[in-house]
Amino acid sequence: MQEIIQMSYICIFTELALKGKDIGAIVKAIFKGSPPSTPKGASRRLLLYQHCIPLCDSGDLQTEVASDILGLLMLETHNLPGPSLAQLASLFVDAIKTGKMGNGKSMELFPTVLTALASTEALSYGKGTKTSSKPIWQNKYVPLSPEELQFLVEKVLRMFLKLDLQEIPPLVYQLLLLAAKGCKKQVLEGIISYFTEQDLRQKEEQNNGEISDLEVQSVPEDQLRHVEGTAILHIVFAMRLDHELGREFLKSLKGSQGDLCPFSIALLLSVARIPRYEEQVFELLKGAISKDLKNEQLRHGSKFLQDLLPQRCSLAQMILDTVKNSVFGWDHVTQGLVQLGFILMDSFGPKAAPFGKTAAEGAIVTAKTPTQQACRLGGQVLLEGFKMHEPIRVEILEQVLNRLVTKTATPVTHFIELLSDIVVSAPMILLESSSKVTETFDHLSYLPLATVQGLLKAVQPLLKVSMSMKDALILVLRKAMFSSQLDGRKSALTGFLLLLKNFRVLGSLSSSQASQTISSSQVQVDVHSRYNSAANEAFCLEILSSLRRCLGQQADVRLMLYEGFHDVIRRNSQLASSIMQTLLSQLRRYYEPEQDLLPPVKLESCISAQGDQVFLQEPLSHLLSCTVHCLLWYQGMSQPNAGESDNDDDDEGGVQAELQSLLESITRRMIKCELEDFELDKSAEFSVVSSVGVKNSIYAVLVMGVYEVLMEYNFTKANYSKSVFEEVLELFKRYNKMAQILREKSGKGKSSKSPRSLLSIGFVSTLLTALFSVLMWRYTNIPCAVEDAGKEKRCSVSLLCLEGLLRIFSTCLLRYPARLVQLLSANDVSVGEDSHGPEKHSVTEKTSFYIRQFQRALFTQLSGVEEDFNSKEAQLLVNILSVLSRQLEPSSQQFGEVITWTVKVCKETSFEDAAFSKGLLSLLFSLHVLYKSPVSLLLELCQDIHSQLGDIDQDVEVEQQSHFAIVNMKTAAPATVSGLLVLSQVGRVLDEVDWLIAKKKGQLVPDKPSQAVRLSPDPTVLLLYHLRAGIG
User: Fold this and answer.
1) Among the four 185, 190, 437, 783, which has the fewest Cβ within 10 Å?
2) Any long-range contacts for 298-304 (C-beta under 8 Å, 24+ apart)?
3) What secondary structure letter does DSSP report for 824?
4) Is residue 330 within 8 Å of residue 232, measured between CB atoms?
């Protein structure tokens, strides 16, 4: 009877629910009238749950009604007794198994039931009693075999791909709880694998969208990143509680040989916030980055490896992707990014060489070695992090500036470059932390000069937008100008010269107008409205007045001033009059006005003595060089405006005329001078241990510098005048005579270092431009037989031409690789062969043309008899071919033609010249390894060497073979070049094979044999197959 009454109530309840009546009041009334402490009340409550759950899943109720019912049920779930909770849990499980969940609305109640069930102390249900009723993956008392646990984990992981993205974080959380029982590695790898696949899918959709202009993505990127961030937080929280999980995570990544992805990198950086894992994480990342860069370099240098290893996303790019992804609220990753960036820059930055010099002096623009690339990656991480994340900007700036101040014994050029990039990319953002930069200015007097120069050049754009920063710098520089330390005064001079160059007075030419050769690495911030021209002019004239005091200081300070004046006048042309007047006044002190007296300069006034020690007081040659360059620049800028002169230019014209007259007088009289006039003939002493010898050495360097400056001045002003060129040659003869004496005398002492040349790069460039065409024409048009037969071959003009060309090509490719076409196009040798007009040619086409020219020259050498063979010239030709061939694309037709030609020469040339053979075989190996596997080539060379030398067992008869004529008895011996080169190449191939086998084996999963079979066949068999194919 009671059951019939309850069923009638349920029918009424259902009808009201379907009609959308106020069902909440009825549910509350049933709960109030059914106390859970009584058996009848508990039974009625269970019956209500059992009826409402399928009712909500049926889809017959309005969404709001179903939500209200479930909400009320959730509130009372914790009051149900244990057996009732167990029955409800079984109800959900049976519905899931039989597929009777309907719309699944009631699943919102399932976690609440499980949580309440887990909180019961004891439970009698079914056949036994359980002391705890936690869900199976939380219950450590529920016995699960390893197979059952693995089955459960795999099944849950397979569910990932079927669930909505927003449902993943809760499932990750539950999986991590389950991992407490075991399968930690499988859980972590499954989670990482899922997000890796999502990242790849996201990238593919972005790439396809760029191609097909599709804007709709299956999963929005911001949604994916937020879910990834939440999952990372869950994992890190679990590792804080379960250290075994953290150790398993690091062990798994170490065992995978650095097989990382953006998600796992972000996870690693978040885990690094746990102190016990911090050092391990960054050591793992640093080692993985270094290894990946080295592997990529090895792969890039071998066609054999490129064929067997497909191109993949580099680890460096993954790290940069992680930085980009961190913008989606990944605050737990940003601190790790900052640490990683500085660790890379500290570990892989330039090191101090002996005697305090930089290991890589004359820095190359592009990072080529893995170490340089790792350092650059650290800078990119910090730069992108600075631009994206405001909370870490202050820390990044502080650490960069601290390293500039504290690392005085090691190079800091990479940190200066980073600071410069930050200023260029975000100057206004950096102004928010301008106080940090201002504090660094206080240390300028104690920093190395190179650091001061780099720092001030880096922050130069900020000085134009921040009056307070500029004023703070000026105050520091004025104090440093009166420092007792020489380095302090040089630092002050560096700062003042920088200010003069960048605070232009109205009417000054822009840097692009002043000289096409000037390229500023800083982005100019156009805020001239903040300053008026009158203030800039007064400011610059005040600085010039302060700098005149430097003319009475040590030679090093004066030299810096002279070297800086030329840059100032080019950038701030309105200061030309003041600067040239200052230089003229200074030059008069050392100029002999009497025209009949020789020499025309007062060398004795340029030195000072203190006891027995003699010092250079005035770098006269640098003063003259600065004067000449300023005068030539001013004359060049004045010619276009010659018709617009006014009274204000009279003073400048007078200074200009006087300087011209003075330089002409010095030139005329220096040509008349003999070395005896300077007391510097061959009988003079140049010993560094006596004051007389030191004085004569200083005199000799000054005289050579004056000759160099006068040569450049007169050559520039000559306008192709024969008489002036004759004067230049006379100046060079005297310069050369002085240089020979100094070289001979100094060579006997402790130091034989030549003095630094004062010829400007512009002048050298002008000479090289002319010489390049002359050398090419001279070498390709005048045969060696025309040369003086009495000269030694190594001193012939042909050799000098080739040496000059080799140096030009090598220097261009080392310093300015992007401007090779411009260099090659500057010569008109190709006009006769190319009749298509002045079209722009690719690097490959222009380089190929010059390669053919030198191939013809080498072929001419090899076509004669061996007695007439010039080994030195042939070696230079091979070196030039080697340099130029590196610029060809290995996949291009021209590259294949060069290899074919080189192989042909090696097969047909039988000259017994060890040095030439070494160069030619080196060229062959360096090209062939980029074209295809060198195994077949090495096999033939080994057979030739074997034929020439015989077998180690004298009773074995060796088949006579000759694939390459260049291998003969003289070049095939083990101690000679052919044998050693072949052995080294064989060793390289074997090293590549060992490396590749280890890498292929590392891609197999030993604990998953079924997957290993699917990944690839045995790597050793695969490699042997490719090697056999290479041998043919």
Assistant:
1) 783
2) 298/992, 298/995, 301/929, 301/930, 302/929, 302/930, 302/992, 303/890, 303/929, 303/930, 303/931, 303/932, 303/933, 304/929, 304/932, 304/933, 304/934, 304/935, 304/989, 304/992, 304/1026, 304/1030
3) H
4) yes
Helix and strand numbers (H, E) in the chain are 45, 4
* Structural tokens at position 254: 């170490």
Helix 370-388 and helix 315-325, axial crossing angle in degrees, nearest 10: 10
Residue 607 dihedral angles phi and psi, to the nearest 5°: -125, 160
CB 449 within 8 Å of CB 498: no
**Is the separation of the CB atoms in 412 and 403 below 8 Å?**
yes
Closest alpha carbon to 334 in 371, 299, 385: 385
In the block, residue with structure tokens 């690719």 = 842
What pLDDT, on a 0 to 100 scale, did the predictor assign at position 925? 86
Q: Which amino acid is at 163?
A: L
pLDDT in tens, 244-301: 888 888 888 887 655 788 899 999 999 999 999 999 999 999 999 998 888 888 888 8
Query: Of 144-153, 421-430, 657-666, where does mean pLDDT reach its minimum?
Result: 144-153
Confidence label for 624 from pLDDT (cuts 50, 70 and 90): very high
610: enclosing H helix or E strand: strand 607-610
Chain length of the chain: 1032
By DSSP bridging, strand 607-610 and strand 123-125 are: unpaired
Cα 398 to Cα 421: distance, rounded to the nearest angstrom: 15
608 strand-pairing partners: 615
What are the backbone dihedrals phi and psi of residue 615, each rounded to the nearest 5 degrees, phi first? Answer: -125, 155
Q: Rounded to whole angstroms, how far apart are CA atoms 293 and 295?
A: 5
CB atoms within 10 A of CB 214: 11
CB 1030 within 8 A of CB 933: yes
Residues 896 and 938: beta-carbon distance below 8 Å: no
Lowest mean pLDDT among 351-360, 521-530, 558-567, 807-816: 521-530
User: 3-state DSSP call for residue 857?
Assistant: helix
pLDDT digits (tens, 9 = 90+) for 128-165: 545 444 444 444 445 667 787 888 888 888 888 888 88
Rounded to whole angstroms, the Cα distance separating 791 from 1009 reads 75
User: pLDDT (tens digit, 9 = 90+) per residue, 727-737?
Assistant: 989 999 999 99
Paired residues of 352 in beta bridges: 358
666 with 727: CB under 8 angstroms? no
Q: How many CB atoms lie within 10 A of CB 378?
A: 25
| Closest among 502, 436, 493, 494 to 468, alpha carbons compared | 436
- The residues near 509 (Cβ < 8 Å, ≥ 6 apart) are 573, 637
C-alpha pair distances (Å), 688 with each of 610, 695, 747, 752, 756: 16, 9, 11, 11, 18
Q: Residues with Cβ < 8 Å from 353, sequence gap 6 or more?
A: 359, 361
Question: Can you say whether residue 611 is alpha, beta or left, with left for phi > 0 and alpha for psi between -120 and 50 degrees?
Answer: left
The Cα 425–Cα 906 span in angstroms is 53
Phi, psi of 458 (to 5 degrees): -70, -40
Q: Which residue has the higher pLDDT, 174 or 380?
A: 380
pLDDT in the model for residue 355: 53
DSSP string of 357-401, one letter each residue: -BTT-S--SS--SHHHHHHHHHHHHHHHHHHH-GGGHHHHHHHHH
Residue 178: which residues within 8 A CB-CB, separation 6 or more? 137, 138, 149, 152, 153, 156, 187
Nearest to 528 by CA among 552, 508, 504, 548: 504
